[in-house]
Amino acid sequence: MSQIKIFDTTLRDGEQSPGVNLNQLEKLEIAKQLERFGVDRMEAGFPASSKGDFNAVKTIADTIKDTSVTGLARTVKSDVDVAWEALRGAAEPCLHLFLATSPIHMTYKLKKSPEQVIDTAVEMVSYAKQKFPQVEWSAEDASRSDWKFLAQIIERVIDAGATVINLPDTVGYTTPLEYGNLFKFIKETVPNIHRASLSCHCHNDLGMAVANSLAAVENGATQVEGTINGIGERAGNAALEEFAVALKIRSDHYPYHTNLKLNEIKRTSDLVAKLTGMYVQANKAVIGRNAFAHEAGIHQDGVLKHASTYEIITPEMVGISSNTLFLGKHSGRHAFKDKVKELGYELSDEKLKEAFNLFKLLTDRKKEVTDDDLFTILMEIQTDTSTVEKYQLEMFQVQYGTANIPTATVLLKNPDGETVQTACTGQGSVEALYKTLDSLITEDLHLVDYQLNSVGRGKDALAESHVQLVINGEPMNGRGTAQDVIEASANAFLNAVNRYIVQQKTAKNKQILK
Ligand code: KIV
Ligand code: ZN
């Protein structure tokens, strides 16, 4: 069984998904979970793309010690320099340099000849190698490139010091047979290929990203790049959890293994879904809500007789527990603390107190508090540590009925500490509420997207809402949880506004300090 390295790009390619916008703390939470999951390398961002990305990559590089951290850079010196500043504190700093090699990209995007592309790639890999012990070079749009040209440029960048060669299927165009053959060709043709490892990076435009990654591995790739839940540009990237479980379940066919802890899949998937607002569809392979549900009578009968009749993956393998009651109304601080630890969280005394209070409030309204509920509470308090003054919901009331006009009344404390109130009507209860909040908030707001989900099942399940707003021209996401759907919706709206305020005030404070 040879080992396949897992390169996670949830925080870079995944974060490029339309509508996703994570703050630094959320990125750090995901990075810590990726480390726990056992990925070999994580791409924390694109440091030269923005100050925010630089700070997030630096924080992750300085914190994560059991996983190699990498950052993306274009083939320009300033990108490499900025990336080095962000990544120099990492346990094993790695730079991910990319340059397109397909005729379409070279002609229309880069406006460079193939010779110029080779020269630029070689120059930048040598430059990066003076700083970084590990340099991965990606031939962007490799799957639509000329194979002989690819072989030529790969040989040159390996001579310049590249330690990993990545052949992305940037637009999700290739097929398993074709992509496998590309890896075989490169392995057989490039004379110095033994001095670097080969990596695959697949997009899912035709729904073949995982199949293409498996084909690459069968033909010499020793590293697989992808994201959690398959999030990413357009139709997304290869879903790492699907790839890893396919290797495990079909080990008779694939003689490879990864370092991933498969029983961390559920938790990693949930964290990414909740923080990005990109919830997985019920029928998604491996982790969807229906992936272990049997509806047809014949199937249910078979599973009762022997699970293997219709179940090839057990829920336990991917970390789905039965999620029964663990703590209730009478549970004390001690039992709570132990459970928090068991879920993998290390909280300060202050945060633990905050979490315990929220838990107690929840037990007043919900009989059975599950791991999922607790995970939602812990995630919320871990990703909100700012002490900046924000909007606080003091009271709201929504009147809704089929015979009256939906009306919301809201009492809000604004960041200046004043209490403001008003009432508005709308076509529905959420619209009335959002119009009222909007009229009390001074920022210019536009609602772009709104989602509502339940945490777990059952009549008393927590409601979880996710919104996308554009605030003063800037996209901002928010999420909120509550027992009631309207309250969760209000919390999500205010969360987006408060994230904007924290971001603005932090940026202002930094300028003053300069
Ligand atoms: O899909 C792609 O080509 C990329 C590169 C930047 C590696 O994400
Ligand atoms: Zn990509």
TrEMBL record:
Cofactor: Mn(2+)
Reaction catalysed by this enzyme: 3-methyl-2-oxobutanoate + acetyl-CoA + H2O = (2S)-2-isopropylmalate + CoA + H(+)
Residue stretches making up the Pyruvate carboxyltransferase domain: 4-266
InterPro entries: 2-IPM_HCS-like (IPR050073), 2-isopropylmalate_synth_dimer (IPR013709), AIPM/Hcit_synth_CS (IPR002034), Aldolase_TIM (IPR013785), LeuA/HCS_post-cat (IPR054691), LeuA_allosteric_dom_sf (IPR036230), LeuA_bact_synth (IPR005671), PYR_CT (IPR000891)
Presence of the UniProt keyword S-adenosyl-L-methionine in the record: no
Residues the entry annotates as binding Mn(2+): 13, 201, 203, 237
One Gene Ontology term from the biological process aspect of the record: L-leucine biosynthetic process
Enzyme Commission number(s) from the entry: 2.3.3.13
Presence of keyword Ubl conjugation: no
One term under GO cellular component: cytoplasm
Superkingdom classification of source: Bacteria
Regulatory domain, as annotated region: 392-514
Keywords: Amino-acid biosynthesis, Branched-chain amino acid biosynthesis, Cytoplasm, Leucine biosynthesis, Manganese, Metal-binding, Transferase
Pathway the protein acts in: Amino-acid biosynthesis; L-leucine biosynthesis; L-leucine from 3-methyl-2-oxobutanoate: step 1/4
Pfam (any one): HCS_D2
Gene3D superfamilies, alphabetized: 1.10.238.260, 3.30.160.270, Aldolase class I (3.20.20.70)
GO MF, any single term: 2-isopropylmalate synthase activity
Subunit field text: Homodimer.
NCBIfam families xrefs: leuA_bact, PRK00915.1-2, PRK00915.1-3, PRK00915.1-5
Family: Belongs to the alpha-IPM synthase/homocitrate synthase family. LeuA type 1 subfamily.
Known role: Catalyzes the condensation of the acetyl group of acetyl-CoA with 3-methyl-2-oxobutanoate (2-ketoisovalerate) to form 3-carboxy-3-hydroxy-4-methylpentanoate (2-isopropylmalate).
Full protein name: 2-isopropylmalate synthase
Source species of the chain: Virgibacillus necropolis
